[in-house]
Structure to design on (129 residues):
């Protein structure tokens, strides 16, 4: 997930690790330097290996990649990530390996709305509008 236009906000590897740890205490987080391919990664173990989730913080600090075997797990992480980004910054949810679609995600978008949008091909509805 990434803002669709340039932004001045970004997240450090330390902030990423702290916020991941508050949401998923069982997660393992590893950070890298500024010149690395990734700024940080988080591995969230699931009940079995099919439910593990990998979150990668891009070096720019404002985009993440989500690798999950289920769409609902990816949508849960996407909704969490959106709440980490300041509300005045637009965030796009790009889904599937070929980036076949995208939709805007707002701070109050629920994971179920993201899941429904991805399943139907329609963008999530904005709450309160």
């Amino acid at each position: 997930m990434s803002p669709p236009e340039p932004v001045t906000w970004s997240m450090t590897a330390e902030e990423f690790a702290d916020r991941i740890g508050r949401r998923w205490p069982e997660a393992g987080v590893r950070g890298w330097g500024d010149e690395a391919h990734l700024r940080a990664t988080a591995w969230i173990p699931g009940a079995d290996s099919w439910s593990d989730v990998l979150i990668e913080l891009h070096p720019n600090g404002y985009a993440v990649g989500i690798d999950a075997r289920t769409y609902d797990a990816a949508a849960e992480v996407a909704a969490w990530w959106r709440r980490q980004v300041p509300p005045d910054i637009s965030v796009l949810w790009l889904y599937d390996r070929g980036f076949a679609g995208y939709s805007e995600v707002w701070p109050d978008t629920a994971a179920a709305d993201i899941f429904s949008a991805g399943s139907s091909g329609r963008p999530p509805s904005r709450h309160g509008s």
About this structure: The two ends are 23 Å apart (CA to CA). DSSP finds three helices and six strands in the chain. Residues 71-84 form the longest helix (14 residues). The chain has one domain: 13-120.
